[in-house]
Design goal:
Radius of gyration: 26 Å
Strand content: 15-25%
Distance between the termini: 70 Å
Shape: elongated
Length: 339
């Protein structure tokens, strides 16, 4: 079936017997074009179903109006919520998103960044993979004037980033547990490569120290965030001579694996559980935590996108040694069910 080609500025100019530049200026309401000419051009453009060429607009503005987003795993409720925040802010600003997942793999992340660079994205929003130690693929984007905004899993160095202060949140959590009389407080922490893991551990240590209590590092285990790693960490804690009274989990998924593991242990009724994340799904499980730290993923995502818009709209050079940082305060949520 024959499909008519979209009308162009040239088509309108030929029909009206005016210059192409006149049509272009009339459509953009240029003050040098008279009202009568503007009305004639716009009327014919409407009749011909003329639509501006996106390619031409991008060329003129030197923008694609596309922002890349790379997440560790969009199936994770935390990152799906954060993406909803990014999407919300993108829609408000008439931007399109190009989305990819690293699946917590450095090489996959690297390839995604390179693919997006070739797609000529205006900017990149990313939450780092748990294996990312080298940041050259991200810092080099400044050479192409592509700003990067990190969120949640952010680097230590000076960069545009949005994150929840889990250091303060960990101290809040430990203080609450100590106030309830718990002393043998264990932690299943995430990979050492993540700044969030380092902040959790430092908060754990400082909370005990500030309460003039000895820190028992034998009660701290790590996981690579896989199901096997989570269960392995729980089993190591259950093998201790003096069992922990409470286990703090790195996130809700570690908590759910810990809860399932404890269901098969004779001491599961004696051990309390708290976690980071406060995702709604944990409230509907058989063993919800006593309390959880809300990290506001939707707000983090929305804030990251708004930060990107600020960088792009203000035309701040990506190579400038000035970084924007937004720290979101956590909230400690106490659930109704507690041991």
């Amino acid at each position: 079936m024959y499909t008519a080609q979209p009308a162009t500025i040239k088509d309108i100019a030929v029909r009206l017997k005016v210059a192409i530049s006149t049509v272009s200026r009339a459509l953009s309401d240029h003050p040098r074009i008279g009202l009568r000419t503007k009305m004639r051009v716009k009327k014919l453009a409407l009749e011909l179903n003329y639509e501006p060429s996106l390619k031409a607009i991008c060329f003129k503005n030197k923008k694609t109006f596309v922002v890349g987003v790379i997440l560790p795993n969009i199936k994770d409720d935390f990152f799906s919520d954060s993406f909803s925040g990014i999407e919300h802010a993108a829609t408000e600003n008439d931007y399109t998103l190009l989305v990819s997942q690293s699946h917590d793999d450095y090489d996959t992340e690297l390839k995604a960044v390179e693919a997006m660079r070739r797609q000529q994205i205006d900017g990149l929003i990313i939450s780092l993979s748990k294996h990312t130690r080298n940041y050259d693929h991200l810092t080099s984007l400044s050479k192409h004037n592509i700003p990067v905004v990190y969120f949640d899993r952010v680097p230590k160095f000076n960069a545009n980033k949005v994150y929840c202060n889990v250091y303060k949140g960990t101290i809040m959590m430990i203080n609450w547990l100590l106030g309830r009389g718990y002393r043998r407080i264990a932690m299943i922490n995430g990979p050492d490569t993540l700044l969030a893991s380092q902040e959790r551990l430092q908060g754990y240590i400082d909370a005990f120290s500030k309460n003039k209590l000895k820190v028992n590092m034998q009660l701290v285990e790590t996981t690579d965030l896989s199901k096997e790693g989570n269960i392995g960490a729980v089993q190591l804690l259950l093998a201790k001579k003096n069992l922990p009274q409470v286990i703090i989990s790195f996130n809700d998924y570690v908590h759910m694996d810990a809860a399932n593991c404890l269901q098969n242990d004779q001491h599961h009724h004696e051990i309390g559980l708290v976690c980071f994340g406060n995702l709604p799904i944990t409230r509907y499980t058989a063993s919800p935590p006593m309390a959880s730290l809300e990290q506001y993923p939707f707000r983090q995502g929305k804030t990251a996108m708004n930060m990107m818009m600020n960088l792009l709209h203000n035309k701040l050079p990506a190579q400038e040694n000035v970084a924007m940082t937004e720290e979101i305060a956590p909230a400690f949520i106490i659930y109704q069910k507690a041991i």
